[in-house]
C-alpha cells in the first residue's frame, strides 16, 4: 500500500519520489520540522470487509497490539543502528514518522542480576554490590559499556527538498531508506488487520495493587 517501486538508476525519478512523499511533523505543528511519514489512520486503510468497524477501533487501545507495534518499530531502528528510527506521532497516533537518532553510553556502570536495576556506580573488582532496589547483593559491572538509544525528535529530514548537490549513491541510499520505511508501514497495517482477524477482545478484571493509609495505635 505504501511501498512504491522506484528506478534507482534515474536521478529524476528518485528526486520526484522523495519530494512527493507524504510528510508529517516530527513533533507538533508549531515546531515546524517535518520528515517522511505515512498516514496509517483507519480511514486511510482499505479495510477488509470481513472485519467490523468497532473491532478496528477497539483494537488500537489493546496492550497486546501496542506491544506488537513497538516490536515492529524497534526492529526497524535496530536494523539501522538507531541512526534512523520510526515513531508514532499525531494526536490519535495516526502517523508513522521517520526520525534520526543514535546510541550513546548511558552512564550506567553496573546492574543487579536479580532484578535488573541499573546503577551509576562501579562495583570494586571481584566483588558484588548491593542493589538499591531489591537489596540483593547481586550488583555486578557491565562487561561492555551500557548503551542508550536516543531520538532527535526536533530534527527534520530533507525538509528543504533540495537534492541538487546529492551524488547518485546518496540519492539511492535515501530512496532505499524511505522505501524500507514504507515497507515497515505496510507491515504495521498488515499486522494490525491480522490481529483484528485472529483475536477477539475479551474483558478481564485485574487486581491493581493500591497503597492505603491506615491508623495504628502508638
Ligand atoms: Zn535488584
Task: Describe the structure in your own words.
- The structure is a single chain.
- It contains four helices and eight strands, in the order H-E-E-H-H-E-E-E-E-E-E-H.
- It is an alpha+beta fold.
- The protein has two domains: 1-101 and 150-218, no CATH class; 107-145, no CATH class.
- The strands form two sheets. Strands 1, 2, 3, 4 and 8 form a five-stranded antiparallel β-sheet that branches. A three-stranded antiparallel β-sheet has the order 6-5-7, with no helix packed on it.
- It is extended, with a radius of gyration of 23 Å.
- A hairpin with a 5-residue loop joins strand 5 (110-112) and strand 6.
- 30% of the residues lie in helices and 18% in strands.
- The chain has helices at residues 11-20, 53-59, 63-79, 168-198, and strands at residues 23-25, 34-39, 84-89, 95-105, 110-112, 118-119, 139-141, 147-152.
- The termini are far apart.
- The protein binds zinc ion.
- The site of zinc ion has 8 residues, from loops.
- Zinc ion binds at residues 112, 114-115, 117, 131, 133-134, 136.
Brief sketch in words of this structure:
With about 220 residues, the chain is an alpha+beta fold. It has four helices and eight strands. The chain is extended, with a radius of gyration of 23 Å.
What labels describe this entry?
alpha+beta, three-stranded antiparallel β-sheet, binds zinc ion, five-stranded antiparallel β-sheet, 218 residues
